[in-house]
Amino acid sequence: PDRPLSVTEWRKLKESLGNPVRFDIKMIHALFASGAELDIAKSLLTFATMETGTLSYELLLRYLSLCVSGGHDAEVFDVYDIMKGSFSSLETGASTLFIKSFSRTARWKEAVNLLQEVKKVFTPSSRNYGDIIAAAVLHGDMTTAWALYDELMEKGLSPHQETWDALFKGVKKTKEVEGLEEAMSQSEHQERLLGILLHMRNNQIYPQYSLASSIKTSFERGLCRCCGSELESIQLTAEEYQQLKDRVMTDIIQGQDVFNKTTPEELEHFKAFVQRKPAFDVVVDGLNVANTNKDKSKLSLLAVVSELERQGLTVLVLGRKHMLRATRSWERHNMNLIQEKAHCFFTDDISEDDPFLLYATLHSGNHCRFVSRDLMRDHKACLPDGATRRLFFKWQRGHQLVVDGYVVSILKYDTTIQTSGDSWHVPYDDTEDRSTYEVPQQWLCLTQKR
Fold first, then answer.
1. What is the CATH number of domain 7-219?
2. How many angstroms separate the CA atoms of 370 and 355, rounded?
3. DSSP code of 107?
């Protein structure tokens, strides 16, 4: 049927088919297979009730399957009440369907109770555990999620990748959970995630694409150590990056002031050079890095390039032509090694490196970072408005690596005053005159009391 039928219409249909045995079961199977509307199946149940005075366990189970597969969770609650009131126990199929449906709703904790009932009779499946774990993560109850995960592993079950995916996607909320004194700390949560990776390593399990993406995102996420709120990412969105790239190319790279620092011919030659090369992962301001090593206490340019090469990165070193002349400051052997380990471009000695560094870094893509201590204040001043200058400043904080005895890494989150609904996060210290890359390490977490 393509619409709900009355009891009389169902009776006529049954008679027209020769009054087959188990008509209601065969019909609910057909409705499920065809993806029929729920109201049609409901009308079949009404007919079955009128015919026999009751609903069989098997018919209700098939109807339950249709409800769960169609996402009709409110109807599942009604079926649950009927089956619990009519039958002394539920078999595996019904329990699994109820756990799956309840776990998708605000009544997810009832799925935990269902799981406890199931354990009295048989061992729940990894899918049963996985559905409730995902629900616990969604509702911020990481303590319950990890307790169920431990139980799953202790029973020798193999977690589904969707279960790992949920745990890696979980945004930690350090809130009190009913019946527990305190929630799991962020460091504990991160340690547990590392345990999953170790389990996958030991069992030679390869994550599927979606899980790999969640693992990557989890390690890139910055969370407040105090309240667990997710902090604003230091990375620009694709739209923000493209907007900034367009403005920098127009106002800085192609602006008139740039030719006070180089020549049109040299800049075009460099653009052609960059476009012939693969996208760079890191662009190094060679002269700037070398000048930080005058007291020999910090990494040399060769040491920096060697370390970046060791990490498997594609490196561009920007230098001046005088660096190619063998002197006490520029040993020929070292310069030859640098040219073996990285792509190199040497500008005229009168040129400034900044426009070249900006062009190569932005041309290579949002992943590309640069190594320099230059603050680039002049370039920010060339940008037309405050919004673009703020984007440039954020991009700079998220992409600038600094050599100070070692190559300083970039934080996952943006070090700026930010809010996440009912909480504020304020970075602070006593530094008065700071460089772009010098950011506070202390945070004030302010949460509104309710």
1. 1.25.40
2. 13
3. T
The predicted-structure confidence for 190-207, as pLDDT tens digits, reads as follows 889 888 988 888 888 888
- The three-state secondary structure class of 443 is strand
Give the bridge partners for 233, in sequence order. 413
Boundaries of CATH 1.25.40 in the chain?
A: 7-219
Name the packing angle between helices 57-69 and 38-52 (round to 10°): 170
CATH architecture of 238-408: 3-Layer(aba) Sandwich (3.40)
- Residue 116: both structure tokens together: 């406890």
Q: What is the dihedral of CA 227, 229, 230, 234, to 10 degrees?
A: -60
Mean pLDDT (the chain) is: 85
| 325 three-state secondary structure | coil
pLDDT at 256: 56
Mean pLDDT across 280-307:
81
Give CA–CA dist 38/1, Å, rounded.
Answer: 12
Query: Can you list the positions of beta strands (E) in 241-386?
Result: 282-285, 315-320, 343-347, 369-371
Q: Is the dihedral of CA 206, 209, 214, 219 positive or negative?
A: positive
What pTM value is reported for the model? 0.57
Q: Which two tokens stand for residue 270?
A: 């460099």
Q: Is pLDDT at 410 greater than 70 in this prediction?
A: no
Closest CA to 171 of 186, 149, 160, 152: 186
Least confident range from 43-57, 101-115, 339-353: namely: 339-353
Q: Where in the chain is the domain with CATH 3.40.50.11980?
A: 238-408
The residue assigned the tokens 């774990």 is 133
Q: Which of 172, 149, 307 is nearest to 228 (CA)?
A: 172
Q: Which two tokens stand for residue 74?
A: 């409110």
Lowest model confidence (mean pLDDT) among 212-221, 253-262, 301-310, 371-380: 253-262
Identify which of 375, 261, 280, 272 has the alpha carbon closest to the alpha carbon of residue 320: 261
Query: What's the alpha-carbon Rg for the chain, to the nearest Å?
Result: 32
What pLDDT is attached to residue 190? 80
Specify the amino acid at residue 234.
I
Max avg pLDDT among 58-67, 181-190, 229-238: 58-67
